Amino acid sequence: MVQFFLESERVTELVTHLKGQKPVFAPHRKGRKSFAFERVEDAADVVLDYPRVMHSIRKFFLPPRETLMTFDLAENDFSTADVQPSDAIFFGVHSYDLGAVHRLDYNLGKGHPEKNYITRRQGAVFVGVSFEPDAYHFCGSVGIDPMDTSGFDIFLTKLLDGYIVEALTEVGEQLLNGLDLPAHEAGKPARGNFQQHIYLPQAKLNEVMAKSYDNPVWAETAEKCVGCGTCNLVCPTCYCFNVEDTVNIQATGGTRDRHWDGCMLREFTGVAGGEVFREHLADRQRHRVFRKFKYISDETGQPWCVGCGRCTAYCTAGISIVNIVNRLVGDYEKVAVTPI
Amino acid sequence: MAKPRVAIFDFTGCEGCELNQLNFEDQLLDILAHVDIVEWREAMDGHADEYDIAFVEGSLSTPDCIKRIHEVRRKAKVLVALGACAVQGGINGVKNTHPIEEVREEVYGEDKYLFPTLPALAVSSVVKVDYNVRGCPMTQLEFLKVFTALVLGKEPIEPEHSVCVECKLKENECVYARGMICLGPVTRAGCDAHCPTVGQYCTGCRGLVPEPNLKAMEEILVEHGLNVDEAWKRLQLFNANEIEGVRS
User: Fold this and answer.
1) How far apart are CA A286 and CA A134, in angstroms?
2) What is the CATH number of the domain that holds B17?
3) Do B196 and B114 sit in the same domain of this protein?
């Protein structure tokens, strides 16, 4: 694979070059110290050196809110929303977020395929960028390296004064055509060290989780938790949603909309008749963690957590999923580990 | 079919919720197409002895309030509590954290015996309330949802999740990340996270989520710089009645 070198000052030029071919979505500064993927209007606004964005690129394929159909009560008629392939470049994606998209492809592609998601996934081109793990990243523990290029069309590996640019697919090569970049021959740098680790690989975690249903860690975590649902909503592999109908004030018609939902929310497990299946926060905490390390993992052999650290970084109560899992590991192995 | 008759009543409150109803400039004609308003002291003359839907604003804080609310409940087929004071006692509930005689003295001085007073109560603590429109002032978005549901004969759905959910759906930067204290994690959604979205913090005006973990919320507030007393005072501002006796 040919590697090129891109000076830091030329990132804008690369973005502009890509933007001339397809719409580009990339991380931008948002608020005081946050970052978010937004459509690039001015290439100079793109930020490649960022710890994480609140919402991964999942939001472009499974939007936080979307209208599924509009209905007309007078005509007793409806029409479904016109969903188009994204056909865009997602620039500056971290490896764990692409890993999350691949997991969503599995969940939303099997059984009854999720038509809107699958349609929007079409024509998506991914340009990755390596990152330095911060106090929350632990993707190394779930098998995702910050410099993992798999699945990307183009990958940028951060160097001190610029980036190594690799085109990994034909689509990637074509997009770089016409850009004059010098070759890079010095090889890749060592990746940064993780500050957070899960102590066992998934193969072993399957055994741990099988013995963890009644672990006291769920109740202990629930004591600190307010059940706000943030951990679900920022998780790039969560895909649960709720569907609601809204009738307009004229009572002539309305829309059927869906929005992200989360298993940490009490009403999520509520059913007709008023029954709530996971009444207590402890039940919901267990379900959340099992959805990432047990239920789908038993089926696929893979952790369904990508180690982005969002659920911990955005938790106002300071609940750490790494500490929960390590506590389960410690109890299984009968060794003391970090308190939750 | 005759249009449902609507009456709007005010108890102890600033009348801001009623004002917010008058502020429905784009929807007022649509609203009036569905119902006849038969009594509304703030906006019209007249008095009605019969009505189908009563919207009640304000908390109940005098013996007279108690008498009037029973009368409203007797006549109304559906009673909707409008705004924080009516739904959970609202800011008026702060009164209840002081001895009632002290409050009376403070407000009325030597004339205090002329004005009997009670702790400020949510309407639902005296009569049955069918539906709530929460917020201070009441959330227009939610009013329209409840109103439309009533007109269609449907059950309005009251959100149980926190304001955090609505902030996340909008990808708002967390208020805590902006260095402020926010009650969003334990406050009931339905306002589309209005205040955090415009750069403010959540004061909890829409009431608490069901079964709030207030001990954990106290820890969050203390972790972010408040002392324990300040933390509970924040929570008390709109929810004094709901958290009465909870602090350990």
Assistant:
1) 26
2) 3.40.50.700
3) no
Q: Which domain holds residue B208?
A: 163-243
**Residues of B with CB below 8 A from A228's CB?**
161-162, 164-165, 184-186
Identity of the residue in B157, B169, B174 whose CB atom sits nearest the CB atom of A260: B169
Choosing from B93, B123, B152, the residue where a domain stops is: B152
What was the ipTM of the complex prediction? 0.95
Q: How far apart are CA A314 and CA A229, in angstroms?
A: 11
Phi then psi dihedrals of residue A312, to 5 deg: -85, -45
Measured between beta carbons, which residues in chain A are less than 8 angstroms from residue B210?
Answer: 266
Query: Residue B185 is nearest to which of A33, A65, A316, comparing CB atoms?
Result: A316
Report the DSSP pairing between strands A77-80 and A88-93: unpaired
CB B83 within 8 A of CB B90: yes
Q: Which residue has the tokens 């298993």?
A: A263
Best mutation target among B155, B170, B174, B248 (most A Cβ atoms within 10 Å) is: B174
B110 and B169 assigned to the same domain: no
Are B171 and A223 within 8 A, CB to CB? no
Binary contact (B165, A30; C-beta < 8 A): no
> Which pLDDT score, from 0 to 100, does residue A100 have?
98
Domain count of the fold of chain B: 2
- CB pairs < 8 Å spanning A and B: 110
pLDDT digits (tens, 9 = 90+) for B117-153: 999 999 999 999 999 999 999 999 999 999 999 999 9
d(CA A90, CA A108): 20
Residue A276 to chain B, least CA–CA distance (Å): 13
Among A233, A246, A266, the residue with its CB nearest the CB of B160 is A266
Would you state the pLDDT for residue B248?
60
Q: Phi-psi region for residue B75, left (φ > 0), alpha (ψ -120 to 50) or beta?
A: alpha
- Which of B28, B151, B157, B161 to mutate to test binding with chain A, by most A CBs within 10 Å of its CB? B161
**Strand locations in A31-93, DSSP E?**
34-39, 65-72, 77-80, 88-93
- Residue A203 clears pLDDT 70, i.e. is over it: yes
**Domain shared by B130 and B199, yes or no:** no
Residue of B nearest to A30 (CA): B173
Do B111 and B220 fall into the same domain? no
| Shortest Cα–Cα distance, B97 to chain A (Å) | 25
The per-residue pLDDT for range B3-58, each reduced to its tens digit, is 999 999 999 999 999 998 888 989 989 999 999 999 998 888 989 999 999 999 99
B148 and B167 co-located in one domain: no
Domain co-membership, B100 together with B217? no
